[in-house]
Structure formats: C-alpha cells, structure tokens
Amino acid sequence: MAGAVEHDYHILPPSPWPFFAGIAALVWGLGMVVFFTGLVPRSGDGAMMEFFFARGLDTIQGRDGSGGGWIILLIGTLMAAYVMYGWWRDVAAESARGEHTPVIDLGLRYGMIMFIMQEAMFFVGWFWMFFELGLFHKFRAGWNPDILENPESYASWPPPSIETVDPWHLPLMNTLILLLSGTTVTWGHHALVHGDRKGAKWGIGLTVALGVLFLAVMAYEYTHLFHYRLEDGMNGTFWLSTNVYGSAFFMATGFHGLHVLIGAIFLFAMWARLMNGGMSPEKHFGLEAAAWYWHFVDVVWLFLFAFIYVAFV
Amino acid sequence: MRALNAMSSTIGAGLVAALSGVAAFAQDAPSGLNEFGPEPKGWFLQDAATPVMEELIVVHNLVQIIITAIVLFVFLLMAYILIRFRESKNPVPSKTSHNTLIEIVWTVVPVILLVIIAIPSMNLLYKQDRLPETEMTVKVVGNTWNWLYSYPEYENVEEWVSNPLDETQAREVGQPYLLATDAPLVVPVGTKVKVLVTSVNNMHSWAVPSFGVKMDAVPGIINETWFEVFEEGTYYGQCSEICGVRHYYMPIEVKAVSKAEFARFIAAGGEPEDKFAQLNDGGGAVVSAND
Amino acid sequence: MVAIPGADIPVVHTPADDKPGFWARWFYSTNHKDIGILYLIFGIFSGLLGGFLSFMMRMELATPGIDVFSSEHTYLVFVTMHGLIMIFFMVMPALIGGFGNYFLPIMIGAPDMAFPRMNNLSFWLLPVALICLLISFFVPGAAEGNGFGGAWVMYPPLSTTGSPGPAFDFIIIGLLAAGFSSIFGAINFITTILNMRAPGMTMHKMPLFAWAMLVTAFLLLLALPVLAAALFMLLTDRIEGGTAFFDPARGGDPQMFQHLFWFFGHPEVYIMILPAFGIVSHIVSTFSKKPIFGYLGMAYAMVAIGVVGFVVWAHHMYTVGMDVNVKAYFVLATLVIAVPTGVKVFSWLATMWGGSIRFTVPMLWAIGFIILFVVGGVTGVMLANAGVTTYLHDTYYVVAHFHYVLSMGAVFGIFAGWYYWYGKMFGHHYNGFLARLHFWLFFIGVNVIFFPQHFLGLNSMPRRYIDYPVEFEFWNMVSSWGAWITLASVAVFFVVLIEAFLMRNKRRVGNNYWGEGATTLEWTISSPPPYHQFSVLPRIDAGDSDPHEEVDEAYARREGDSA
Ligand code: HEA
Ligand code: HEA
Ligand code: CUA
Ligand SMILES: [Cu+2]
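A: This is the predicted complex of the input protein with heme-A.
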C-alpha cells in the first residue's frame, strides 16, 4: 500500500456493519409487522408460534391475549443498537487516527446537510397532513353526512368533542426548554472550539439533560391525555384513535418526540466521546453534526408549537 | 407511430386466422336498440352520446394529430440522420456542438404547440366540470361490489341495487357479459342530469365512456358530475378504480329512455325493469321490448 | 464484434489492489464497483421476478374468462407485485444503484463514493426489502387470500380496512427499507458529486450521466421522505384502535393519501428515467463520434424536469373530484414538462446530426430508447389534458403510456448501459450477433405488447381487470403474443450472458474498446478497472486537453516514482 495513494479520500477496508444492519432491519421489520398486525391468529392456548407471532399490541393496551411482537422488536432494536455502536466506534477511531482529511470532513458536512434535508421533507409530510385536515375540515363535514359519525362536529376544528391542550402551560414550558437547550449546545460547541473542555462537557451534558426533560414533560402530557380516556371513556380528552384530530396531534408530535430522542442519543454519544478525551478544538465534526441536528429538531418544534398547539386552537 | 401501428396490425392479421372465436363475438350485440360500449377489435374512442363526449373527441383528435405529427417528425428525422450520417457515408464527424438559433427554435415551437393544445383542452375541462343548471339528480353509491342508484328528487322510487349479470344470465338476455346489469340506471334523454357519486366502503369509480364521464366514488366525499344523453339506448361502463377482488365485476349500465317513458317509469314507482323476473318467468326474452 | 483498440495496453495495477476474500469482498464490501455489481445482479434477479409476474398476467389476459389464476385476488396480487418489483427492485437498483455506483465515481475522477460503508448499507437494505415483499405473497392479506392486491398505488381504504392481514404490513416495511436505501444512496451520490470531482472538473464539465445522477439524487432525497410519512400513516391507520387519517367515519380523508403518494410518485417516474437520459447521452455521443450537442441545455433541461416534476403530481388524480381550477393548474404545469424533455430529444438528434454513426449494440438500444420514449412521452401529453383523461384515466391507455416510458424507456436505458459498459465491467466482450438478436426480439416484443394497449384504452378497457368483455379480446390476444416474443428475448439475453462468460478469455478488451468518441474518464482506465482506480487523481485542466493523456501521464509519473 505504501504511500502511492496520492489523494486525500478515504479508501475503507471491508466492514461487517452494513450487512448486519440489513439483518437487524429485517428482524426489526418482522417485529413491526407482528407487533402491529400479527402473523398468526390468536387462539388462546399460548403455543410457541402464537407467543412470538401473534399480535402484540393487545398486551400493551391491556387487553387479554399473548403476542411477543415486542420481543422480536426488542431483539431487532438491540441488534441495530449494537451495529450502530460498532459502526460509529469505527468512525470515531478513524477520526482519532487522523484519517479524516479536510476533504472528507467537508464530505461529512454535505452528508449531514442532506440528511437533515430529508428529515425536513419527512416533517413536510406530517405538516401537509395537518394543514390539509385543519384547513379543509368544513368541506369534509359537508361532504358526506351518511358516513361521518357526527358531521356537525367536524364543522369546527378541532372537533368540539376534543379538549385541546392549553399551549401556554406544558407546551410553552417545553418550548422554553428546547430554546434553552439550543443555547447550551452552542455554548458547549464554542467552549470546545476555544479549548475549554470543561465548558464543552457541561454544555453538551446540559443539552442532553434538557432533551430528556423535554421528553419527560411530553410523556407526562401524553399519559395525562391518555389517562383521561381510560377513566372517562371518550369524553375527557383525546387519544390518537379518537378522531382525526387526535391522530394528527399524536403522530406529528410523537414523531417529533422520536427525533428529539434520536438527537439526544446523538448528543449523548458525543458527550461520551468528550468524556473519554475525544475530539479536539479543530476536529469535532461529530459534535457539530449533532448540534445541527439538535437545532433542526428545535425548529420543527417551533413549527409544531405555532401551528398545532397555538394556531389551530 | 403509424409504422408501429402497421407493424402490430400485420402481426395481428397473422393471428386472426388462429383466433377462431373472434368473428363469433361480433355477432353477440343485439340488433335494434342503440348500444354504446366497447366495440370488437375497436381501436378508437367510443361514439359520443353526450355533448361533453363530442367535445372530448374533438380535443382528443386535435392532440392526437399534433402528437402523431411530432412522432412522425422525430422518426423521419431519425431515419434521415441514421442513413445520411452512418459511418460508411460520413466517416469524418463534424464537431459542432452549439447552435443558439436551433436551440431557441426547438424550445419555442413546442411551447406554441402546447398552447394550441391547452386552449381547447381548458374549454373542455371547464365545460365538463362546471355543472350547468341541471334538471334532475341521480345518486350513485359504490359498494363492494355493486352500484346503488336512487333519485333524490323522486322519493317514491326506492334506492335499488344494480348487480352484474353472470355469464349465463347475460347470454339469456342477449346482453354483453361484464357490461350488463340486472337493473340499469334509467335516465331521460335530452335532460341535463346531475350525478352525485359516493361510496360506502372501498373506492370505486363510476365511468360511462360514451358520456365522457368518470367520477371516483370515495367514502366520505360526494363528488358531482353531469351528463345529457342525446338519444335513447343502453350505455355501458365499468368500475374504474381498483376496489378489491370483484373490481372487474361491477359493470355500469345506463338506460336512456324518452321523457315520456321516464315519467311513466317514475310514476310506477320506478319499478326497475327486472330482467330476472323475466328470466324467472321462463321468458328469456330480450329486454329491448320498448320502442 | 468491433476491432478492439487498446487491447494491447497492459492493465494498470494500483497500489491498493488488495483483494479481500470472497465473503469480505461481497458481503462486507466498501468498494463502489463491487457494490455496483451486486446491485446489477439484484436488478437482473428482480427483472426476472417482475417479468415472470407480468407474463402470468399476460397469459391470463390473452383470452376472456378466468383461466390461469385460481383466484381473482391472486391476479391483483401479481399486478401489485409486478408494479412494485419492477419499479423499486429492478429499474431503480439497476440504473441508480448499479450504473450509478459503478460509473459515477469513475466518470468524475473519484476513487470511490463519499461514504463507502453507507453505500453497502444502501445495497443490503434492498434484499431485506425484497424478502419482506416476498413474504407478503404468502401471508394472509384480504379475506379472499394471501398477498396484497391493492395495486402499487396502495390507496386506502382498500389498503387499510380492505386488506386487514399482515401481507400489506410487510409491503409497508419493505418499501420503507427500500426507501431508506434510496435516501442513503441519494446522500452518497450528492456528496460524491459535490465533493469528489477530480481537480479541474467543474460542474459544467461534469459528464451528463453525473448531472442526471445529481438531479435524480435530489428527487430521491426530497420525494421519498414524504412517501415514508404516508406509509407510516397507513401503518397506524391499519391497527385496530389506531389512527384515523384516512378513515372518513372519524373525520379522515382518503384522498389525502393520494396527494401524499403522488407527491412522491410523480418525481419517482423521473427518478426512473433521468439516469437513462444520462446513459443515452453518452452512447449517442460516443457512437456519433461527436461531443454532446448543447451540453448546458441538456444539463439544465434535466434540472428543469426535476424542479417542475415536483409540482405536477395531481395529474394522476384528475377523476377524484378536485376543484376545476386546481385541475386546470395541473394540466398547464404538466404540459410544461414536454418542453425541457423536447430539448433533450432534439439535442440527441442534433448530436447525431453530422456525426459518423456506428450501429453498435448499445447504439441500437439508445436509438430505440429515443424513438420509443417519444411515443410514450407524447401519450403522456395526451394524458395531461384533464378533459380527455376523464375518459382515459385507469384504462389501458395509461398502461400503454407508462410501459412505453418504463418498459421501453427505462429498460432500454438499462440494456443500453449494460451493453455499453459490459466490457468495461467484466473485461471481455459479448457476442454481437446474439446481442443484436436480443435487441430486435425485445424491440418487437414490447411494441407488440404495448402498442395495442393504446387501442384497448381508447376502447375503454379498464386497468387491473382479470376478466374483460369479449370486445377487448382481439388486442389483448395480440398483446399477449408480444409477451411471448419478449419472453424469448429475455431468454436470448441470458444466452448472451452465458456465451460471453464462456468465451471470456477469447474476447479480452482494452481500456477504450469503443475508440474515438468515448471520451469520459472510464475509458482511460483498464477493463475491468483496477480494484481502486485513480490512486493518482486525473487532472481535468481548462481548455480542451485530453483526459486520456492526463491520466496516462499521471500513471506514468507514479510508476516512475515507485520504480
Ligand atoms: C419513466 C416514467 C415516466 C415518464 C418519463 C413519464 C412522463 C410523462 N407522463 Fe407519465 N406516468 C408514468 C410514468 C412516466 N411518465 C406512470 C408509471 C404512470 C401511471 C401510474 C399509475 O397510475 O400506476 C403515468 C401516468 C401519467 C398520467 C396519469 C394518467 C392517469 O392515470 O390518468 C399523466 C397525466 O398527465 C402522465 C403524463 C406524463 C407526461 C406529460 C410526461 C412527460 O414527462 C413526457 C414528456 C415527453 C415528451 C412530450 C416527448 C418528447 C418531447 C418532444 C419530442 C417535444 C415536442 C413535444 C410536444 C410539443 C408535445 N403520466
Ligand atoms: C419498470 C417498470 C415496468 C416494467 C419493466 C414492466 C414490464 C412489463 N409489464 Fe408492467 N407494470 C408496471 C411497471 C412495469 N412493467 C406498473 C407500475 C404497473 C401498474 C401496476 C398496478 O396497476 O398497480 C404495470 C402493470 C402492467 C399491466 C397491467 C395489469 C393490469 O392493470 O391488470 C400489464 C398487462 O399487460 C403489464 C405487463 C407488463 C409486461 C408484459 C412487461 C414486459 O415488458 C416484461 C418483460 C421483462 C422485462 C422487461 C425484464 C427485463 C429486465 C431484466 C431481465 C433486468 C435486466 C437488468 C440488467 C441488465 C441490469 N404491466
Ligand atoms: Cu368498484 Cu372497482
Ligand atoms: Cu406523473
């Protein structure tokens, strides 16, 4: 190999991770199907097949019935987690060995920008759904009285049976949490750039903590809405199956929450690298990428807050 | 395109001999009554039964002429180039790779052609879609797998189900299988009819080609369209949105009758002409007794 | 076949010519060329699978009556799977994953893709996705049988309440996996193109195939996530006690899915044709021995097609009951796309004009592509007119339209690329006679299949019908005969492959076996290329210097150094 390669690009040795990522995806996909629909009907005698392949959601929802879909899902998730760990460990090691030349660093930047662009389009899908449902509800109410359960209720949005979440309580608090976390992540980044590793650790650590806090508040809000349903039937507040407003609300905010979780894990990994003495003032693109991602998640939340919590109430 | 056309028909002609059945099918159509539907070996739009369809054919033909001309132009140019500039004829290639004028021409000319297409196309679209003052209404509900018809304005006529005729039944009444139904929708001629289309389960699409009508039946939504039939007759259509296993087996049959006939029909409580009744009577007579 | 210039030039070995063992090389690959080959093999496999499904469909449709399939449901499952497999598992892997991976880095003078590991992930997600689709065949779908029969467009409520079994969940998971595969691929291509062009290769000097891949990658990046969101909505809508997005009884809107789907679906059709445009451009230029006519116009026409492609989606929804003004907008927007596409067609013709045209096998496919794509394109213009499409929507006219642009456009592009680059990829040549036989049989076959389908559509035969009134018999019979001819041609294709493999040692080819006219960088390196090409980056200097010389010099320099 000696020295004859006259370019700065990275020619990688073969890597097992992508292949096993594929296998993990297969297991995970199988788990999803079993979890949501089930592969075999449930007969109740709890045989092996049934335990693993019957629908799993029933157990979650507290109904009777077996269903081990979640086990497959868990195995898939663990496999994926292991692959990700191994994969990113390799990347971090390559970076530490100085294999990430400036041009590769630039490539990583392009890659991350593209990744965030596609995430943005994913949320475009959810907002499209929300606006279509929210803006054209009057038409739908008029369209087909035969089939709509109670048409008049759809003449307003959200439907009157829905008791919406007051945006100026928990959601406002969550907005502030995320905005604050946006500043702490910048603090951490700048601290690292200026060689203040301690500040960097604090900044990133705090950001992760704020992210977790955000998720906790969100979980509280969700269980609150959910519990009402269990106790008072449908008339307390709403759940994602109540009607289309519930679906829109929970899926849009839920997918955002999932992205907060991903961002927090990403930042946590960077924090762990910092704690292990990784990253330097000059070379820390992983951290920067995590920060970009975090800001992106933040902006999505501002849109959610403005439109789903405030404007459509 | 013409070349291809000729090519496939040559091949087709070769096959005719092998297809013993073809000729027999042509005789299936009952004579006498006007029937609008697909034609054996048909290769063109169905005949127009409404003003919208008349205009649709005009627009189609205009576009067809333009696109055929474009295709012929490209074919002939290509043929010329391939012959004139083949290696043996033109061993030394030119090196031209720019010519602003020609590039402008082949941008502007298509734009002009498209404008020529767009204008009549818009007229047709608005004519088809903007409901004129309609004189009566029918309601069409798609169901897996049959159609429900009713007249919201004539409450004495109950909603009825229009089921497809199976193969033996169709043969007995002398109507085409997969197009004929046991109880067609009945409408008067010369009347602007508004059609409300919806569905109670899967999506369907209510389509009568010779009317130039195709409207999706979507649960939760009532779509509107209209038609005005010129002459009496039977008009066939087929469900045109995939709706499950019997998607192919939910035909549409519309019977256009004279206004007087229609009035009688409504007065009689809309007793749909029950072909089964006749079948069950052992009649097996062809349905086209009227007029 | 043709004389092989350059056959005597020895293979240049690069220092990184280390060959990993079999398993590591093909399963753990980080080499864009190996991954490209994997994609191509995958594409051929899926092509056979999708082709098999379509031949079964054509056999069923040859005569009226239900005589091949045991149930109507199975027929619909075949139609659905045929559409999905051909699009997601044959055309996209072959054109984007296969040729894109193999040739894009070489053409822009890069040693590999930007993210070689992620590249392999993109590939391995595809077999996973295909396995999910195959499982779906054999698990309960609707009450009527196994598999999902709701067409590749998956409209609810047929795909929610209409197909309660797990079959459709597997399809959702499969498509999500295929989607992620393409998104990662797109990120990889964009980064490679923006970041790894050889010194001196400005965007405006990039080969057109690279431009095509750039636009395609952006379409993938922006369109697929929306499909993913829509698929998630379907997934949760399908659960008992799940969401209500498309359930009208709880205020949902089934048509919303159609908007989301086609917002993806229309860019998707350009995703399938743009790489073929790129390939055809190179072939036409090579065998006319002329540079591309109107290079910038060609590049920006593709950009324009990509941009406008995002704002025309509802032309698939003319009969769903949209407001007439909305329809009018979509008619006009759709018509606009004919203009940049025309620029491409006429520029190809102008490239050939004045050229010195050689009728090699890839050139035949490229000429066939241009001719048949125009036929398919102009019927698209017919369909753009909402008024007329009220009649034609969901008839075989549409089927004819999109097979002319897909089964002839995209597939001709694939075969053109295959025969153009076969020697480059495998180092030997195929038998020209057999390859020509393949071309002519395929050309005749697909035209006989799909030209009569225009007539069926005009005569109003609806799509997705297992059985039809006898009036439609004649042209259906003709069409099915065409399928036999096409089947024969696919068999010949395999004869070509086997024959070429057996004769591989007798037909070695050199660096540039097409000779004058083939000017892109892949022709400057050996056939097959070294395991890692461009250890010394080629330098594309201003002016008209010849990249061949540049590379030769660079290698000479390096060999001198190490000697
Ligand atoms: C590779 C795939 C591909 C490509 C390139 C295209 C290209 C085009 N398509 Fe097609 N289309 C499909 C794949 C594709 N399509 C598929 C798969 C479906 C069906 C989906 C389903 O329902 O299952 C479909 C359906 C479809 C419909 C909906 C029909 C219906 O269901 O009712 C419409 C309507 O507007 C349409 C229009 C067009 C147009 C205007 C173009 C244009 O881009 C074509 C432009 C090209 C030309 C016009 C030819 C070259 C130009 C010239 C020579 C210049 C001069 C020309 C003029 C002035 C006209 N297509
Ligand atoms: C790329 C897409 C593609 C391709 C190539 C084809 C190819 C063919 N299709 Fe396709 N078809 C679709 C996409 C495609 N189709 C779609 C999207 C639908 C709509 C589905 C729906 O309604 O939901 C459809 C629907 C459809 C119908 C309508 C069914 C119905 O509505 O009831 C019919 C009927 O005749 C048909 C027939 C055929 C036939 C005979 C071929 C033949 O041309 C097949 C011949 C075989 C090949 C062309 C494969 C050869 C390729 C290879 C072997 C790979 C080579 C690879 C490398 C060299 C790397 N198809
Ligand atoms: Cu009803 Cu298709
Ligand atoms: Cu389209």
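The first strand of chain C starts at residue 140 and ends at 142. Residues 1-16 of chain C have pLDDT under 50 and may be disordered.
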